[in-house]
């Protein structure tokens, strides 16, 4: 009689280099989100224009999309650790420029428009760096653990990333109030330096030398062709992209905090952290109870739930109900993220991971940053409540369409 193998919820954490990777992911996400929240709030406080918030996302996503495919190609041919270190150095430089831009002497010299466009230029620079950082990071992760625990590593990777997403926005408003904008930016720079040290501790260096004889255009075509010909990857990325592109509310939370719920920067921090708290709790649960047994069914249900709770948030005028709805969107989003990340680790061949990760990054960033611009523009034209309400409804329509086209994926197992 065979003894059943006991599920080890902490198997991926037993690998030291994966732990360094997780610590870097946590600090990187935490620092960038603190920066995003405080800069967005400061710009809205100065301009009271929701489009100013959307422009931050647009300034970052345009260069990201422009270089991401090339970044994936570079990640497949070169030392990913060096790419991560160089990218982080550029991001630190961007934070340093923001630090100086918000010094009183610069604010006094620059006009409002000059100041805004200087800030957008910095986020453009950060977007360029992230276009190389993202595929290098995503394609390095599978090499740090054995293949049989990819699902577990995806859960922990998402957990630490979401922990950064909880702590970052959760403390951003308080840091803004008690430390001030410029001192918080200084703390962000120090945190990113720690990330550089953690990347240096990773010694694994998988490089695909077989790409040396392939032209860059052939390399990029191969990556795109693989994604668009692999149904489960294409639909998983599409669900994420369209739900967040139209249903996301994060970029315009300062509008809800200031004009609808009247809770100030501290309340904004709680609103911004609420979905990540829900995600973090769910991530820990999924380490023990993976959602990958009936993966596609769970994926569709979770994205549909995201749409429903987005609609509830749009209609709420009570701060705690709004927090609860955002908390629930985080639960739903975390389930779809773990399933999507597991899919992205299992299906791409090793020699194509960087390019596939870059395509995935384009989908994800298109939903986040372009979604931020779409939300800001729509809010300016129609107001925040109709924008979020319609976005949640579009999410449900997208789920319905994908369900009708992907019934054959219901039997697929990722474990």
CATH top-level class of the largest domain = Mainly Alpha
Counting structural domains, the number is 2
CATH level-four homologous superfamily name of the largest domain: MFS general substrate transporter like domains
Query: What's the alpha carbon Rg, rounded to whole Å?
Result: 21 Å
Unreliable stretches (pLDDT < 50, length at least 5) are 1-5
Overall mean pLDDT: 82
Organism: Dyadobacter frigoris
Subcellular location: Cell membrane
GO cellular component, one term: plasma membrane
Keywords: Cell membrane, Membrane, Transmembrane, Transmembrane helix, Transport
What does this structure look like?
The chain is mainly alpha-helical. It has 2 domains: 11-213, MFS general substrate transporter like domains (Growth Hormone, Chain: A), CATH 1.20.1250.20; 215-410, Growth Hormone, Chain: A, CATH 1.20.1250.20. The protein is built from 15 helices and no strands. The protein has helices at 16-47, 50-77, 80-101, 104-109, 112-140, 150-178, 181-200, 216-229, 231-247, 253-260, 264-288, 295-315, 319-346, 353-382, 384-405. The model is unreliable at 1-5 (pLDDT under 50).
């Amino acid at each position: 009689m065979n003894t059943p193998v006991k599920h080890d919820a902490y198997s991926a954490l037993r690998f030291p280099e994966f732990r360094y990777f997780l610590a870097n992911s946590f600090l990187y996400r935490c620092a960038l989100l603190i920066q995003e929240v405080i800069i967005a709030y400061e710009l809205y406080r100065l301009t009271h224009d929701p489009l100013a918030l959307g422009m931050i996302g647009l300034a970052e996503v345009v260069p990201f999309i422009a270089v991401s495919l090339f970044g994936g190609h570079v990640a497949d041919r070169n030392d990913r650790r060096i790419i991560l270190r160089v990218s982080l150095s550029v991001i630190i430089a961007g934070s340093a420029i923001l630090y100086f831009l918000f010094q009183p002497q610069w604010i006094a010299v620059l006009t409002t428009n000059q100041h805004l466009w200087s800030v957008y230029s910095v986020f453009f620079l950060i977007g360029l760096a992230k276009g190389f950082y993202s595929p290098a990071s995503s394609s390095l992760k599978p090499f740090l653990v054995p293949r049989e625990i990819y699902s577990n590593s995806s859960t922990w990777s998402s957990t630490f990333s979401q922990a950064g997403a909880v702590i970052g926005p959760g403390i951003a408003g308080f840091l803004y109030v008690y430390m001030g904008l410029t001192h918080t930016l200084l703390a962000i720079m120090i945190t990113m330096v720690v990330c550089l040290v953690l990347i240096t501790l990773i010694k694994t260096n998988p490089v695909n030398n077989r790409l040396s004889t392939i032209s860059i255009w052939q390399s990029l075509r191969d990556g795109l062709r693989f994604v668009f010909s692999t149904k489960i990857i294409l639909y998983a990325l599409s669900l994420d992209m369209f739900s967040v592109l139209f249903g996301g509310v994060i970029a315009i939370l300062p509008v809800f905090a200031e004009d609808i719920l009247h809770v100030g920067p501290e309340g904004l921090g709680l609103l911004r952290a609420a979905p990540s708290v829900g995600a973090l709790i769910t991530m820990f649960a999924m380490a023990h109870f993976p959602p990958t047994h009936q993966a596609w069914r769970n994926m569709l249900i979770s994205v549909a739930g995201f749409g429903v709770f987005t609609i509830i948030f749009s209609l709420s005028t009570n701060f705690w109900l709004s927090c609860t709805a955002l908390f629930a969107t985080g639960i739903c989003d975390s389930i779809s993220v773990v399933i999507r990340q597991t899919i992205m680790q299992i299906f791409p061949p090793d020699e194509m991971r960087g390019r596939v990760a870059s395509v995935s990054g384009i989908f994800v960033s298109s939903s986040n940053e372009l979604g931020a611009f779409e939300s800001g523009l729509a809010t300016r034209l129609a107001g925040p409540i109709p924008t979020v309400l319609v976005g949640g409804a579009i999410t449900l329509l997208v789920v319905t369409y994908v369900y009708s086209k992907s019934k054959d994926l219901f039997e697929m197992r990722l474990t």
